[in-house]
């Protein structure tokens, strides 16, 4: 009996010692080759994880720099449009469908899935100086990654090209206008001192005009539609904005002006497999890209210009220094980390994700509007895409919707009043108000609500009943469907 | 015997189980109230700690976005000027003493001491959109902290004032020029459409001129020294840069122009207890501040303007949007974190550190140059400082050195050729080249080397021996002293 008891003690002891060994290995074994024992970084890491763990029902998220709620503990949820309540679980029935701004939240789920690889911990003493150790204002490592991303996507030639980082394409667009128009430039054969004409093709992104007119430079003047330009004098200098794919209509525009007195600024921020087939690597003299439309980080004000000519490069670089004294090191560090994730595995993952998401949305929208005689969409022309090695259609960032009924001269108003959908007026793009731009790159919630509202609107086309309480019926149904998911 | 054995088994088992319990509590007990079990943030935290642990001999540091060395493991050391070798332990005897740029590394040790409170972990999905949830481009939390910092320092009135964030003071200075000069402005009574005159007081910070001339606006023109301006027409609009404390000479300048046709842009980036007594909270119409000279983070391109007039505020805000589409969210997040540390305990810690460091440097420099008949410094006028509640002298960011010998017309060259010290020429500030600016806000290494070289130079004033191999003797001795520390 005692023997039995003794051997059971031995067994228990052996088991307990084994558990001890296992626990010791788990607890202290990390330093020896496993996990690093965190010290000063732990607090920041914990803060970030606490905030990320705030429950927002999948319709919002909390941010580190969000407003702290009354309980004083942590920032509260910031809900997607049409959702409210402290945990974003409440659907706001009469809300506006926001299809206006170009916030690229469609990529947010990608980064949530790649949380570990895309996080950065910034130390309090990180890069306090104005310049990097090579005296430059641009991280060499970031520049290397930008070239790599273009190699991977096959969307631009960067070999033998200069690269300048700016505070988003917005910053670089003005830098390029200044660089190409400044009277000291030898890009133009003309000795004329009259201001260079800045021209566009309608429809065009409004910022080109706003910005060019805002700066009121003696060196350049916004002249609008290039096809209306009087070139009889022969020495007029022309700087042309070429947006390819175009914002708003997704067209792969090409320069209309050639020759020694003209220069083009190619805005290529949408020239990624997310949005368009990539028929060939772009090889224009001055091309502008941005992290906003590549990784979805519009808030990280960072873009880059790829430039052929050294003198133009020097002037664009000078602009970024004179206007901003370089680009925030914090943004450069973040861009570096994000691009590292993008180039992993040849870019397959993010471009697949971006394309699939955007193509799905586009097809759903096409299907909806194909039932309509009242609304039409831009054409969908498939091309061979060198990235996916197949013929594919576009998956554009924006829908360029036209109201076809004669009486619907204000398409923005039609969508707003009849569907509670807020797009961006055609006239903002220099086009007729018969057109309206709808953003497709926003959050899934925004897209779902937009599509739902458009479905409702289209389904009423043959309906002769008076149009009351559209939203009340539809949004309740919508909410039910959402909660069933 | 068996009994004895049995009880010793029981004892061992009890001990083992107790150890088990202790280990289990250590390993899994964190969630219950101790440490949070880190998941997705751990990798970023480890990366940051690994990089921070790279040994650089106290004369350099490694950065997360530094170039990766051949071993492919982690970024290498970036050494302070005059130090080299893979661990920065090597003193470079013939190196140049860099007293040119205004990199505010003097605050780096403060942030290394506050590693835990100042670190941030940025999630991959942090603030991807263009605007905050209130549709603004400026973090409310950051704005709140900016007001608090001014309250704490007592250096500016912010109650009832508007605040705009920009990409450093560089960005905001041009925004203010544009805002105050634009022809749509009603800040001027004049209906004249001639460009506003931008004026300065000599010596002045060169960027005002570079930037104003660079943009070549029809609305404003750089006219240099305000005292030379011909105001006979009576309707001339004047915009005056007032830098207080002044860069380069530390003077608390005041506006020279008054009345309905003039406006002042107060550049107050050095108006912090680090550099100057704070006699009273500044209360100017347009004031510009920056994180660079407050926390030392020049690389985080972030500054702010404090503005009285709403229309001017709206135009300055518009400028930041049209030129850059707002300020990087990453930089705003970082600034928020840093300002949180600044305001802790009423700002005592950082301002004490900043003042003590800068005052020590200034006194050492004064002592050295007090032995010289060849070089003189700007005056040192004590004032009552409301922050420290005592009368105190300045502790300026820059020394404004004058060469007193008639033949020393090029003071920059004198210091360069005779002491291997590189300052910034007086003519860069619109002054005579008999002056040179020496930066005192750089790293402790930079200051030590500068002081040492100046000591050597001054000690030779009475020395009639030929001036050969100055640096060879001195730097060896210097190196010996450094290694003894």
For the residues shown, what is the average pLDDT of chain A? 89
| Strand arrangement in the largest pleated sheet of chain A | 7-13-12-11-10-8-9
The multimeric state of the shown protein is homodimer
Count of β-strands of chain A: 20
- Please report the distance between the alpha carbons of the first and last residues of chain A: 62 Å
Which pair has the most extensive contact?
Answer: A-B, 115 and 115 residues
Number of helices of chain A: 14
Structural class computed from helices and strand pairing of chain A: alpha/beta
Q: Which descriptor suits the 3D outline of chain A?
A: globular
Question: How helical, in percent, are the residues of chain A?
Answer: 25-40%
Rg over CA atoms of chain A: 27 Å
Q: How many strands, what sense, and barrel or not for the largest sheet of chain A?
A: 7 strands, mixed
Strand content of the residues of chain A, in percent?
Answer: 15-25%
| Unreliable parts of chain A | 29-33, 464-473
Structural account:
The structure is a homodimer of 485-residue chains. Chain A has 485 residues and is of the alpha/beta class. Helix content of chain A is 38%, strand content 16%. Chain A has helices at 2-28, 42-52, 108-113, 115-118, 140-153, 168-181, 207-215, 291-295, 310-324, 329-343, 348-370, 411-419, 444-459, 470-484, and strands at 60-62, 77-79, 83-84, 90-91, 97-98, 120-122, 162-166, 196-200, 220-225, 238-243, 262-267, 286-290, 303-307, 375-376, 383-385, 390-392, 398-403, 421-422, 424-425, 435-439. In chain A, the strands form 6 sheets. A 7-stranded mixed beta sheet of chain A has the order 7-13-12-11-10-8-9. In chain A, strand 8 (196-200), helix 7 (207-215) and strand 9 (220-225) form a beta-alpha-beta unit. In chain A, helix 6 crosses helix 7 (207-215) and helix 6 (168-181) packs across helix 9 (310-324). The radius of gyration of chain A is 27 Å and the shape is globular. The model of chain A is unreliable at 29-33 and 464-473 (pLDDT under 50). Chains A and B meet through helix 1, helix 2, helix 3, helix 4 and strand 6 of A and helix 1, helix 2, helix 3, helix 4 and strand 6 of B.
